[in-house]
Prior knowledge:
By secondary structure, the chain is an alpha/beta fold. It is built from eleven helices and 13 strands. The chain has helices at 11-23, 44-55, 73-83, 99-102, 104-124, 159-178, 200-210, 229-240, 271-282, 306-312, 320-335, and strands at 2-6, 31-36, 63-67, 87-90, 129-135, 182-187, 190-191, 213-217, 223-224, 227-228, 258-263, 269-270, 287-291. Strand 5 (129-135), helix 6 and strand 6 (182-187) form a beta-alpha-beta unit. Helix 1 packs parallel to helix 2, helix 1 crosses helix 8 and helix 5 (104-124) packs parallel to helix 6 (159-178).
Amino acid sequence: MRILVTGAAGFIGFHLIKALLQTSSSDKEYAIVGIDNINDYYDVALKNDRLEILSKHALEHTFTFIKLDLADREAMSTLFADNKFDVVINLAAQAGVRYSLDNPDAYIDSNVVGFLNVLEGCRRNHVKHLLYASSSSVYGMNVKQPFSTEDNVDFPISLYAATKKSNELMAHSYSHLYNIPTTGLRFFTVYGPYGRPDMAYFSFTKKILNGDTIDVFNNGELQRDFTYIDDVIAGIIRIIDKTPSPQQSEITTATAPYKIYNIGNNRPVTLRRFISAIETACGKKAKENLLPMQPGDVPITYADISELQEDIGFMPKTTIEEGIEKFVAWYKDYYL
């Protein structure tokens, strides 16, 4: 099976490619092309180290990395035409809610223009299944809990969330018009080793170990559906073979091979428990600076994963304490 993974040097992309290559066998052999523009939104050295780990598989002709920007229409067109992918997994995106307040252009270029180029590549080269990263951010400040894929998500509170909602709408139109099977994945606060340095668990660990003060928003009363990376990857790999069939919703006659899933832990954790887990793993107490809620942030994320459980048997196994312990062990080994 020939697979394109965009965002190959990113957190989820790296772990997905590594897992696919480790599970590749004579029964199900994966030939993977990974692309990434390796931008400097966060430490490029970390991205290069992820690629270095994957590079050993290049000698076995199972993994090829190409530095490429999704927004480069001609290069993307050539990539698709040359490789004839069976499956595309689009994980490349400009990430971060707060960063979108200061750099909106980056989100339109990568998340909207780039995603259009992915859709066009799938359309013109008969890709059998497109999986793409959406986000729990699309739920905004919805009051109903847990968040269900049946809920209305027409009220984003950040540009990042708006671009992810636009991806879902664009995917539906291409599924309907061109019969391209598409599956959107609404990720809920993914964390773990080799994670993104801009995420709270990463910066908290660094500051607690250094004896620095951490900023605790909303006085620590936020809740997040933290989802450990290994659980997320297990879900994605199962979804690859779960190609959606044409279907309609209850409010439209439009038919499309289109599906959206929540990928979360289904057990929201308070910021207080989260910080406590990091303190325990670090063996140090945190110094805290209590702050109000930040613009674009939400008080709680909570995933309804019943549909994913029913369709692929998805069941996260990792508690926040177990996951944070593994992350902090990696952090100490990598940085200290």
